[in-house]
Specification:
By secondary structure, this protein is α/β, with parallel strands linked by helices. It has a single domain, classed as TIM Barrel, CATH 3.20.20.70. It is 42% helix and 14% strand. Helix 5 (136-145) links the parallel strand 3 and strand 4 (149-151). It starts with 7 loop residues before the first helix and ends with a helix. The structure holds S-adenosylmethionine, 6-(5-methyl-2-OXO-imidazolidin-4-yl)-hexanoic acid and iron/sulfur cluster. Residues 44, 60, 98, 130, 151, 153, 190, 220, 222, 225, 262-263, 290-293 line the site of 6-(5-methyl-2-OXO-imidazolidin-4-yl)-hexanoic acid (DTB).
Length: 325
């Protein structure tokens, strides 16, 4: 059964289950609700990089931190479509375009993003964007252009949020997510482990996600990639056990969601990643770059899939299942 009425205490008890038991439970639920042999392969592209006015403490693209990234204006549509085609040829079925914007503005850049969405959709890929805050009208325009999903993360608990970001509120985030839902676009929403948050913060974030009237269709679980020049550059590396606990809990609470093992794979062994797949992760970002930081190459990931007997999930499968039921 899919539930949206989890109590905080239930989430807490689940999260604190002994690890082996938790993995076993998550793997069982995963098997019941999903095809455990397949993993969704998504590719990210930063279409506008750096110079962002926000102060997210983890982010190399915030203008106020002195990081080594090169600021880049919005890419040309043709160039973006070339990348999308390459990603498709390499076996990716979802293409996610990220922009270092606080929010979308109704200007020529937005018109260009609309064109990009149309173009990627025409390639037969699931198109996703992550562009910051959105109004309902903007979400509708993107939906009309063929946008399949919108990524907008809660990152952490409402209580800890202010320690990580001061230039917007948790409620701003929830409002955008609501606007995306109303436009009929699939919601991609998750968080980051390793920001300095407590277990309680992780439990609260999971509770917020799992009690949304409709669960997000995808839930990215990122391990902080500490970047030189950001306030969190010296944070301790996330332990794989913490990531596995987070993934397994998300899988049990939101059985049908695509749980994405997102940032952080570049420094994880295949054995570590295998544990995450066992615990219910069924989506990854592939391609040698995330937005600005390194990621394993397509070839490395396909070798890992071969080793584990996993296969990439076909595009638009969620939609097809909905039509069948
Ligand atoms: N500017 C938009 C926004 O903030 O919604 C979209 C792009 S933003 C880079 C997308 C997400 O990437 C953030 O919400 C955060 O969860 C994740 N992220 C950014 N930097 C990260 C890092 N260093 N390590 C892990 N995740 C990170
Ligand atoms: C998400 O949850 N993780 C992705 C995607 N959504 C946009 C971004 C990860 C970014 C990691 C840092 C970087 O490469 O800049
Ligand atoms: Fe800007 Fe997004 Fe980075 Fe925050 S996470 S600084 S909003 S690009």
């Amino acid at each position: 059964m899919i539930r949206s009425d989890w109590t905080l205490q239930e989430v807490e008890e689940l999260y604190n289950t002994p690890l082996m038991e938790l993995i076993y439970k998550a793997a069982t639920i995963h098997r019941e609700f999903n095809d455990t042999g397949e993993v969704q392969v998504c590719t990210l592209l930063s279409i506008k990089t750096g110079g962002c006015s926000e102060d997210c403490s983890y982010c190399p693209q915030a203008a106020r931190y002195h990081t080594d990234i090169n600021v880049q204006a919005l890419m040309k549509t043709d160039q973006v479509l070339e990348y999308a085609q390459k990603a498709k040829d390499a076996g990716s079925t979802r293409f996610c375009m990220g922009a270092a914007w606080r929010e979308v503005r109704d200007n020529r850049d937005f018109d260009r993003v609309i064109d990009m969405v149309k173009g990627v959709n025409e390639l037969g890929m699931e198109v996703c964007c992550t562009l910051g805050m959105l109004t309902e009208e903007q979400a509708k325009k993107l939906a009309d252009a063929g946008l399949y999903a919108y990524n907008h993360n809660l990152d952490t608990s409402a209580e800890y949020y202010g320690d990580i970001i001061s230039t917007r509120t948790y409620d701003d985030r929830l409002q955008t997510l609501d606007n995306v839902r109303k436009a009929g676009v699939s919601v991609c929403c998750g968080g980051i482990v390793g920001l300095g948050e407590t277990h309680e913060d992780r439990i609260k974030m999971l509770h917020t996600l799992a009690t949304m009237p409709e669960h997000p269709e995808s839930v990215p679980v990122n391990a902080l990639v500490p970047v030189k020049g950001t306030p969190l550059e010296h944070n301790e590396k996330v332990k794989v056990w913490d990531l596995v606990r987070m993934i397994a809990s998300a899988r049990i609470l939101m059985p049908k969601a695509m749980v994405r093992l997102s940032a952080g794979r570049a420094t994880m062994s295949i054995a570590d990643q295998t544990l995450c797949f066992m615990a219910g992760a069924n989506s990854i970002f592939a391609g040698e770059k995330l937005l600005t930081t390194p990621n394993p190459t397509f070839d490395e990931d396909m070798a890992m899939f071969d080793l584990l007997g996993l296969k990439p999930r076909e595009a638009f499968k969620g939609e097809k299942e909905m039509v069948q039921h």
